[in-house]
Structure formats: structure tokens, C-alpha cells
Amino acid sequence: MILVLDKAAEKQGIAKVLEELHALGLEGRLLESGDKPLIHVTRGQTKRARKLLGMEAVQAIVPTSGPRIRRHGRRFYPYHFIGWSAAALVLSGVLVFLSGQWPPGLGETVDSLAAPQAAEAALPWFLRAPVEIVERMGALGWSIVGLGLVVLFALPWIDRSRGTGLARRWPFLILGLALAAAYVFVGFGGGH
Hints:
four-stranded antiparallel beta sheet, 6 helices, 4 strands
């Protein structure tokens, strides 16, 4: 919750608001934002801060979270979307880095007098797993790959675990690590 103070409020008025805040069992921090001073209530029952509306220096109270956020959590877009986008960008950078470290055909010496050999078109390791599934299972393989993509993008709606700690999300964490390990195993040729 944020208390918007009158821009004409002096330091004594701001100090008085902070004292009243502490008297109500709340903690706050003064923020300088443009021409109006703000007090961000950081701890305590924020409903008690409504009593401060009667003070001369307090102009308004702006809630920073409502019952929907406390009940359901933050929406996927934009809150979690930003984190997932950053993770995807880092993963893309790692994949580009790894593709430059181990390109196919490295290690053999070049003989300039011999006729060039035809290069084999090798799939990158991260595409081998879906191709292997489709080759071994045919039409069912396409269904499995498609279903895997749908589940991947539907995870925010599937995961109904409460809380933010890893202990509450252990089933999804173990399942995700197992699927990632299987994907890498098949991608690096373990399935052959």
C-alpha cells in the first residue's frame, strides 16, 4: 500500500505520518517520486493505514495488491511472462554458444590434394529427440511431440501448487528434470 502525501507537506508532517504509521503497528519507507512524497507501507496489516486518511498531510491511499492477487497469485502476463522471456533469451544464447563449440566435422585434418567429401547433414542435438520419436513411432510420434509442446506451453495453467518455495513444487520439479534429462539423453545419441 502506498500513501500519497500532499506536496506541501513539510518534514515535520511527514515525520508525524510515519509516527502514526508505527503507532498502528505498520512499517513504511519514504519515497521521493516527482513532486509528491510517498510512503510505501512495507509491513503490517495494511487495512489499518486507512485511518491515516483523516490526517492533513495524507491525500490518498493506493493499494498495491488486492484480494484477487492474494487469492490467485499474479497473472502469467505480464508478471511471469517477463521472467520466462528472459530465461528463453538466456537459453537461446547458451544454445548458440554450444553450437559454435561443437560444430559437426571437427577434428579431422584437411588434405588440400584430396577430393572433397560430401558433408553429411547432421541434425543438431536439440532436434534429435523429436526426430527420433517420430522415426520410431510414426503418426503416434507426431502426436506425442505435439502433445509435449501443448503441455509445455500450458504449464502455468496446469501447475496449481500453492506457495513459492521449491518444497511445494517438488512433483513438477522432478518431472521437469526427468523429462529434460531424457531429452538430452536421446539428443546426444543415447537412444540409438
